[in-house]
Design goal:
- There is one protein chain.
- With about 280 residues, the chain is mostly helical.
- It has a single domain, classed as Orthogonal Bundle (MetI-like fold), CATH 1.10.3720.
- Helix content is about 70%, strand content about 0%.
- It is built from 13 helices and no strands.
- The longest helix is centred in the first third of the chain and has 33 residues.
- The radius of gyration is 24 Å and the shape is globular.
């Protein structure tokens, strides 16, 4: 083999990863996209390609599930930004030696199944459960449970996805140099001005990555609606599951999956264009 066509060591090293991505990601994705154009209720490739499955999504009420999923995911991101930024700031600048302990408090729940944790909240909020039962026994208050409402679904999503927002945000704040903050203070800037003009812009990549990660995960959430919401909210992931299982309409499930991936992919690409990912990852 001539030197001009010799494969470099880097290419050989990357070959297992390339094969893994092709087999484990690209191939299933291509199959889902192809299947979305098959006639409804078929179980194999064949027949004339059709857009009927995509038309069905918007002719029925299925698109409402997509709107709910996107709305709840966006609300989860907004709430978590408000909650997590002060906590992340404290972990980096304020808590000192207690930062490790506080971080562990957020990490330990990740070792427990999401469904187990959600059922724990179910027992906590259920009628005559931990919260309402205690209030009734101690104070005679007979309150209605907030379970099986849209608000408790949002609460469950915020609870589950806190770590996915907090840790990238903490990384972003930690990358703001102390020298820059001190220089701004020495030049006469107030603490609010330092935060608004220095710390927030420089920590924005961490906030952005946390928001994207949280949004992508939350838009496909299903357990929170099933366990805490009692099907008061039907997320798009539930419709996809039903299409592939009970309805046995695989092409419709594939079309829903493709539509969800397309919308989320476009939103992520638009967001990624707003900051320099290479700089955030320390490549330059």
């Amino acid at each position: 083999m001539s030197s001009g066509t010799r494969i470099s060591a880097g290419t050989w090293s990357a070959l297992p990863v390339i094969i893994f991505l092709l087999v484990g990601f690209a191939a299933p994705l291509a199959a889902i996209i192809g299947f979305s154009f098959m006639p409804p209720r078929t179980f194999g490739f064949g027949g004339r390609p059709t857009f009927e499955n995509y038309v069905t999504i918007f002719d029925s009420t299925t698109y409402i599930s997509l709107v709910w999923s996107l709305g709840l995911a966006a609300a989860t991101v907004i709430i978590l930004v408000v909650i997590c930024y002060p906590v992340a700031y404290g972990l980096v600048r304020v808590f000192g030696k207690w930062s490790t302990l506080i971080t562990l408090l957020f990490v330990i729940p990740l070792f427990v199944s999401e469904n187990v944790r959600l059922y724990g909240w179910l027992l906590f909020f259920i009628k005559n459960g931990v919260l309402l039962g205690s209030l009734k026994s101690l104070f005679g208050l007979d309150l209605e449970s907030i379970l099986f409402t849209k608000g408790i679904v949002l609460f469950g999503m915020v609870y589950v996805y806190i770590p996915f927002m907090l840790f990238p945000m903490t990384l972003g704040i930690s990358m703001v140099p102390n020298e820059t903050r001190e220089a701004a203070l020495d030049l006469g800037a107030t603490r609010w001005q330092v935060f608004k003009e220095v710390e927030l812009p420089l920590s924005l990549p961490g906030l952005m990555i946390g928001s994207l990660l949280t949004f992508v995960l939350a838009v496909g959430a299903i357990a929170e609606a099933k366990v805490l919401g009692g099907q008061q909210v039907i997320p798009i992931a539930h419709d996809i599951e039903i299409a592939f299982t009970y309805s046995q309409n695989w092409p419709l499930g594939a079309a829903l999956s493709v539509l969800l991936m397309l919308i989320v992919g476009v939103l992520v690409l638009l967001a990624l264009r707003r900051f320099d990912l290479d700089r955030f990852l320390g490549r330059r």
